[in-house]
Queue: 3 jobs
Job 1
Amino acid sequence: AQSVTQPDIHITVSEGASLELRCNYSYGATPYLFWYVQSPGQGLQLLLKYFSGDTLVQGIKGFEAEFKRSQSSFNLRKPSVHWSDAAEYFCAVGARAGGSYIPTFGRGTSLIVHP
Amino acid sequence: NAGVTQTPKFRVLKTGQSMTLLCAQDMNHEYMYWYRQDPGMGLRLIHYSVGEGTTAKGEVPDGYNVSRLKKQNFLLGLESAAPSQTSVYFCASRGTSTDTQYFGPGTRLTVL
C-alpha cells in the first residue's frame, strides 16, 4: 500500500522568501504524485501533478515540484512567497485500482507567511 | 457551472441520530469520492464510486454507507452517528479523461 509523509507540520517564511515543502512517498511502482492547496474553510485545489516524463513539474500560482525517484520525494517549491500563499498544503500519491484512481494524502503542512 | 456542491455546509447531530450528506457534480464525471478530514490526519477516503450504481470501500468505511443512484449524485449516510464521526467531510469527483480530482467546499459535522 502507498503512503505519504510530510515531515513538517508547520512552516513559517517571510513574504518574498523562497519556499520548499517536503513530501516523501512509499509506493512499489511509479507513482502518480500531486500537490493540493487548501485555504481556510475551503476545499482542496490542485496545484500540480506528476505522472511521467519531465521530473520538474510546473503548476499554478508559480509553484513547481521535482520528482526524485532515488529519494522517493516530491518536494514543492516557490521562489518568492506571497502573503496569499498562507494555507494548508497536501501531498498525495496515487495508485490505480481496477480502473479507478485511489489517492492517499499526507497529513498536510501549514504555511504561515510573515509580512 | 457549479462544479462540486455539498449539502449541508454545517450540521450538528446528537449521538445515535442519522443523516445523509449530499454531493452533486455537474461535470458528468464517472468517479466520485467521500473523504473525511481531521486535524493532523490529512484526508482519509471513506467510500468511492467508479460509476452510477457502483460503490466501494475506502480506508475508513465503518459507520458510513453510500449510494450512487444517479451519476451526478453521491450520498453519504450515517445511520447512527457517534462523536468519533465529528469531522469535515469532503466530496470529490473525477472524469475518465483526467486524473484531477475536483473537490467540494466541505460539510462540517459535529456529533454531540
Job 2
Amino acid sequence: DTGVSQDPRHKITKRGQNVTFRCDPISEHNRLYWYRQTLGQGPEFLTYFQNEAQLEKSRLLSDRFSAERPKGSFSTLEIQRTEQGDSAMYLCASSFGGTNEKLFFGSGTQLSVL
Amino acid sequence: GESVGLHLPTLSVQEGDNSIINCAYSNSASDYFIWYKQESGKGPQFIIDIRSNMDKRQGQRVTVLLNKTVKHLSLQIAATQPGDSAVYFCAERLTGANSKLTFGKGITLSVRP
C-alpha cells in the first residue's frame, strides 16, 4: 500500500494521559498536514510541514499539542494531558505542494478521551 | 469571517439519477477548489479539482462547476450508484503557494436502490 498510513486507527485514553499518533506519508511527498475532524464537520487544519520544517500552526493547536517531522518523512502528533474535548478523528495528509496542491489523506486516528 | 459552506446537510437520490451537490464559498481570494468524498471510517478521498480560471471541469462521471460571480461550487455525479453514498466536502484554498485547504461542512449523499 503506497498511500498515507496512520497508526493507531483507534485510541482510547483517560483524561490527563498523553497520546502520540504516527503518520507515514506517501514517500515522494514533501508536505505533510495534520487535520482534526469531529462528527459531521469538515476537517480543520492543525499544522503542516514542508520537509522537516513546521511552517504553520493553527490557533486550534494549543500548547498541549506538538508535532514533529524529524527527518522529513514520517510525522508524530502528541497530545499532552488529554481533555475530553480532544476527542476527534485526527487526519494526516500529504502532498507535493505546488499550485494545484492535492492532499491525499490517511484513514485517521480516532481518539476517545474518557 | 470567511467560510466555506454547503447548502443542505443531506441529499437522497434514486440509483441511476444524477446528483448535484452545492457549495457556497465566501472568500473571493480563493483560487483553487477541491471536492472530497469521505466514506465511513476512512479519510477524505480526492474526487476532482478546479482552478479559479476555469468554470467547468469533467472527470469520470463527475463534473465540477464554478461560478465566481456568486461564489458557488457544485459537484454533479452522473448515474449515481450505491457506491457513491458518502459524505462530500468542498474545500478551498486561498491564493498563495503556502496556503492551506479549508473545508466546509459535509453533505451526506444517500443513494436509494
Job 3
Amino acid sequence: DVKVTQSSRYLVKRTGEKVFLECVQDMDHENMFWYRQDPGLGLRLIYFSYDVKMKEKGDIPEGYSVSREKKERFSLILESASTNQTSMYLCASSPPGLNTEAFFGQGTRLTVV
Amino acid sequence: AQKVTQAQTEISVVEKEDVTLDCVYETRDTTYYLFWYKQPPSGELVFLIRRNSFDEQNEISGRYSWNFQKSTSSFNFTITASQVVDSAVYFCALSEALGAQKLVFGQGTRLTINP
C-alpha cells in the first residue's frame, strides 16, 4: 500500500519559533509537494521538488523554505513562525511523467500562538 | 494563470438523494488534466478520477459519474443515491501537462449526507 507519512498530526508552536514539518514517502517518487489548506481557499502550493536537492517555489512560498536531502523525505521549514501560518499542511508525492496522480499524507494541523 | 472555481461551499442532502458538485476551470493550455479528490474527516486526500483535456467522454464508476464539457470549461461530479459515507470535502483540481504536475485546487465543497 502506497504511503505518504507526515511526522505529526497536530503541532502547537510559539511565534518566532523555527518549525520543521517532515514528510516521508515510500513509493520512490521523484516529485514531492507541500500544500497549505485554509477554509475557503482550498489547497495552495507552497514549494515542490522534482528531484533530490532540487526545489521550486509554488504560489505562496513567502515565510517558508524546504529541504530535500534524500529522495523519500521532503521537509517544510518555517524559519520564524507567525500566527498567519496557522493552517493545515499537506504533503504529496507523485511519480514523473504525464497522467499521474498525487498521493497525499494525512496532514499536519499547525497552530502558532 | 490557471484557476479552479467550486462555487458551492457547502451542500447538505438527505441520504439516497442525488447530488452534483460543480467545478469550473480556467486555463490557457490546450493540454491539461482535471482531477477530483475526496477529503474525509481523517484529512488525507483520496484520488477519485483524472481526465485529460482530449477525453471528453463522461465516466461512470458505481454511484459516481463525471461530466466533462470543454465548451463550458466544466468538470462536474455527480453522486447518485448518496450515502452517509459520502460525507466529505471534495476538491476539483487542474494540472499542467508538462513539468511536475503541480495541482491548482478549487476552494472545495463540503458535502454532508444526512441519514
